[in-house]
Amino acid sequence: MTCLRCLILLSLLAIQPALTIAQSTNNQGDKLKENSNDVKREWLLVPKVDTSPEALLNDLGLREIQPGIRPFGVMRVYADKTSFDEHKITEWRQRVESDPRVQTFQRNHQIQKRGWPSDPEVTAQWHHYHPNGKDLDSDSVWPISKGGLNALGFQPVVAIIEGFDPDHPDLEGNTFFNTAEIPNNLLDDDGNGYIDDHAGWNPWTQTDVVSQDDHGTAVAGMTGAISGNAFQGAGVAPDVSLIRIDIGPLTEADVVAAYSYAHDLRSQFNTSGGNAGAFIVATNASWGIDYADPSDHPIWCAVYDSLLEVGILNCAATANLSIDVDLVGDMPTGCASEGLISVTALDSTGARSQAAYGANSIDMGAPGKHLLLPSSWDSPADSSMSLWNGTSFASPAAAGVIALIYGAQCPEFAGQALSQPAAAALRAKEALLNGTVNEPNLNGITTSGGRLHSMNAVLALMETCADIDTVGCTVPGACNFNWFASIDDGSCDTSTCIGCTDLTACNFAPLALQNDGHCAYPALGLNCEGQCLWNQSRTASLEAGTHEFMVFSGEANGGDLELSMTFNSGGGAWAADQVLILVSPDGTARQLGGFSLLSESLLPGSIQADQLQWSGSIPFSWGTNAPGNFTASFDLSDMTGSGIWRCYFINAFSGNGVSTADWNFLWNDWCALGLTSCPQDVDGNSFVTSVDLLWLLSNWGCEDLCIGDIDMNNQVGAADLILLLSIFGEGCQNFD
After folding, report:
1. Which of 51, 103, 343, 640 has the most CB atoms lying inside 10 A of its own CB?
2. d(CA 474, CA 17)
3. The domain that contains 63 carries what CATH number?
4. Is 162 helix (H, G, I), strand (E, B) or coil?
């Protein structure tokens, strides 16, 4: 057997995302350029009553995403990025709007957070989105499918035929576990023929103890790394489930045994009507034998036919050699099976990247060069991603798109996947291949002549989605409206889903679809329970090894503090290097952040090392120099007191460079003081005394959020001193 098909760049990168910010141009109150709430290249179109929608779409070069589903006559359409230049979007839109058959035309907008993930590395993953369009178009397809539950509620699963790290933060939520099997009881609890197969399967050891390494972790991450978890990047199908199947010592016998396990789980799923087994829709093989003649491996090639019979498509990486597989052979990508999809590697320009080809054997190209993917996860030091090259990662991209196809909301296809699994698999393969984008350098050397395109593949499936008679509520706007129902059963509910729909309101109703106009909000400085709430923001741009501080007046009665930080690294600093020290009026100092207590050399002069307490380690996800948003919670029940508080912001990085942290604090049971009739009462005790004067002088020259800034001009100076002395020794009456 050959070595694993990858070329690893031995470097961990910190990538600064390059985000394209849309410019706005007013056109009847709408924005012509894409904005953050626009669904990319999706539009809503209402044709005039006497117009043929199909003819109109054809003439305008638009495609309907959900054919036949047109609530209130509105069609959800897709404008392929290759059909017009973004710089000419204004002209293009005006042409559409001026068509006499068009009544209304506008952008589609997101109504909930379903767009681009919060993961800090995802914008650096060119295979999801690249300005030159040679990407998978993930940003367009994810609002339609992320590879999650299909229309019948079944979860698509991709079998990764090698080990990966199930505890990696980008994989642990998507790793498949056989919940019908009780681990380590030496019994076959679910009757599938495998004992204790709870966490995957290792045919060599006949256990669920599966190996894990960097290669397999990166392969699994390409297919199904989680999105929206504010950690690193995302997979092609971020909601798919991933099952681990080991191939032991890399012999052909182990390969056949590994595939057999996937076959048996899908077969059990089919025969049980989805009540047992696993809905495995694809496997991935990122390994093989260079220059191998398929005629020498008849059993191996026949396995793919057997897998197809139960509804499994099988993706395989071809050789990392610029050779013609049709002439010199390769396994498994030389096998002539309808159940096999063979993939070569492309770079970000669409060019083949030192990878094999074959007009009869290789089906398509997919991203396979300079790919930022997860690495093994043992400690915070391993949290950075690595650059990977090779067909090893082109193949799992195709497996991920298959999961997207199976996760698309087509009830008819979902039913076929259960009742006619082989036919459904061939239909998914047809959508995958028909959805490829023509790439001139692949013409004549691959069966499709194109590169993988996730949006086109899903649309190709949806365009064949047949209408089925579904019974349910057919009244748009009803609480239980069923998009797929064509026969009304009289169950429409128009009352129980009415309530407050504002997430920020105290009486927000998560199930409400219509706002009742009675949202209630907390008073300033309070939370919804009437408790004090400190909501403070601060930006700290600090050179490594330096600090700054702010002071504020208030009273704390314990409570929890929710901390969030938007971070941009300078010089390689980690998010975990950005540390806070909170000092109460009685001098109690508490470190918030970091993986350990700060050394004495980093402490401000007013804080002694033996006085510093620690609130415990922050989440391991802070152990990265990648930009992003980071959160943590702290129990401050023992931090009490009334008076002047201090907060120090420290960049504890031992190297060089300036890092920027935008902090936000939410502290329950912390009440601001100083609500008096005279701002000269700096410490908020209702009297203007020498204490107030000392606080003002100690902050002389301070700028931005300073105690003693009486005239509120963001600077403590002579004007503030004059105002304080004007009523020195007098009392202030607190507001009731």
Report:
1. 343
2. 44
3. 3.30.70
4. coil
* CATH number of the domain where residue 189 is located: 3.40.50.200
Question: Do 732 and 615 share a structural domain?
Answer: no
Same domain, 198 and 267: yes
Q: Quote the percentage of the chain above a pLDDT of 70.
A: 81
Here the CATH number for the domain that contains residue 637 is 2.60.120.380
- At 334 the pLDDT is 95
Residue 88 and residue 154 in one domain: no
CA dihedral over 457, 460, 464, 469, signed as positive or negative: positive
Please name the amino acid found at residue 735: F
The domain that holds 695 is classified in CATH as: 1.10.1330.10
Give 85's pLDDT tier (boundaries 50, 70, 90).
low
Q: For 593-602, how does the pLDDT look when each residue is reduced to its tens digit (9 = 90+)?
A: 888 888 888 8
The reply to whether 450 and 547 lie within a common domain is no
b (16+ CB within 10 A) / e for 576-591:
bbbbbbbbbbeeebbb
Question: Which own/partner contact pairs does 14-23 have at CB distance under 8 Å and 24+ positions apart?
Answer: 14/384, 14/569, 14/572, 14/624, 14/625, 14/626, 15/121, 15/123, 15/124, 15/372, 15/626, 16/124, 16/568, 16/627, 17/120, 17/121, 17/122, 17/123, 17/124, 17/627, 18/123, 18/124, 19/123, 20/131
Out of 429, 462, 495, pick the residue that ends a domain.
Answer: 462
The confidence score (pLDDT) of residue 45 equals 78
- Which is nearest to 7 in space by CA: 245, 234, 214? 214
Would the pTM of this model clear 0.85, i.e. be above it?
A: no
* pLDDT tens digits along 281-322: 999 999 998 898 888 888 888 889 999 999 999 999 999 999
pLDDT of residue 299: 82
What proportions of the chain, in percent to the nearest 5, are helix, strand and coil? 25, 25, 50
**d(Cα 243, Cα 175) in Å, to the nearest integer?**
6
Residues 280 and 384 both lie in one domain: yes
**In angstroms, rounded to a whole number, what is the distance separating the alpha carbons of residues 649 and 626?**
20
Q: Does residue 382 sit within a domain?
A: yes
| Alpha carbons 422 and 434: distance in angstroms, whole number | 18
Is pLDDT at 324 greater than 90 in this prediction?
A: yes
Comparing 67 with 529, the larger pLDDT belongs to 529
Which of 515, 514, 486 minimizes the C-alpha distance to 70?
486
Structural domain for 99, as ranges: 38-109
The answer to whether position 407 is within a domain reads yes
